[in-house]
From TrEMBL:
<dbReference type="InterPro" id="IPR036421">
    <property type="entry name" value="Fe_dep_repressor_sf"/>
</dbReference>
<comment type="function">
    <text>Central regulator of manganese homeostasis.</text>
</comment>
<comment type="similarity">
    <text>Belongs to the DtxR/MntR family.</text>
</comment>
<keyword id="KW-0464">Manganese</keyword>
<keyword id="KW-0804">Transcription</keyword>
<dbReference type="InterPro" id="IPR036388">
    <property type="entry name" value="WH-like_DNA-bd_sf"/>
</dbReference>
<dbReference type="InterPro" id="IPR050536">
    <property type="entry name" value="DtxR_MntR_Metal-Reg"/>
</dbReference>
<dbReference type="Pfam" id="PF02742">
    <property type="entry name" value="Fe_dep_repr_C"/>
</dbReference>
<dbReference type="Pfam" id="PF01325">
    <property type="entry name" value="Fe_dep_repress"/>
</dbReference>
<dbReference type="InterPro" id="IPR022687">
    <property type="entry name" value="HTH_DTXR"/>
</dbReference>
<keyword id="KW-0805">Transcription regulation</keyword>
<keyword id="KW-0678">Repressor</keyword>
<feature type="binding site">
    <location>
        <position position="77"/>
    </location>
    <ligand>
        <name>Mn(2+) 2</name>
    </ligand>
</feature>
<dbReference type="InterPro" id="IPR001367">
    <property type="entry name" value="Fe_dep_repressor"/>
</dbReference>
<keyword id="KW-0963">Cytoplasm</keyword>
<dbReference type="InterPro" id="IPR022897">
    <property type="entry name" value="HTH_tscrpt_reg_MntR"/>
</dbReference>
<feature type="domain" description="HTH dtxR-type">
    <location>
        <begin position="1"/>
        <end position="63"/>
    </location>
</feature>
Length: 144
């Protein structure tokens, strides 16, 4: 299993490659707001663990294993954003909250959250019912 920070890199590298077709050390550094030398170090580590192949002057490519894991990590991030949005978390908090929790849940928990998201997405009335609970709670908090 990749460590939390390896996961952040793999997630971002996978996304960059999806968006632009490649991921340069400088792009990764800008994206994760870290120094390029930290990126090089991590990329070498990921190479050793066979998530990608890194050649100094040719850039990097994900191995099939790296692609598989990267895709899963991006899916997990997006799922957790959907989840927080559905339960009514404010838009401005969503990204930071997901960054805070994504590495700390088991895949079992992720899959169960996936079921819950599906449950709500399948019927809009379920989301409305949840909003109704939230409105009532807000009113009772105001009256405390
Ligand atoms: Mn993320």
């Amino acid at each position: 299993m990749p460590t939390p920070s390896m996961e952040d890199y793999l997630e971002r590298i996978y996304q960059l490659i999806e968006e632009k077709g490649y991921a340069r050390v400088s792009d990764i550094a800008d994206n994760l707001e870290v120094h390029p030398s930290s990126v090089t170090k991590m990329v070498q580590k990921l190479d050793k663990k066979e998530y990608l192949i890194y050649e100094k002057y040719r850039g990097l490519v994900l191995t099939p294993k790296g692609k598989k894991v990267g895709k899963r990590l991006v899916y997990r991030h997006e799922l957790l954003e959907d989840f927080l949005r559905i339960i009514g978390v404010e838009g401005e908090n969503i990204y930071t909250d997901v960054e805070g929790i994504e590495h700390h849940l088991s895949w079992d928990a992720i899959d169960r959250i996936g079921d819950l998201v599906q449950y709500f997405q399948e019927q809009q009335t379920r989301i409305e019912a949840l909003r109704e609970v939230q409105r009532k709670n807000e009113i009772s908090e105001e009256n405390e």
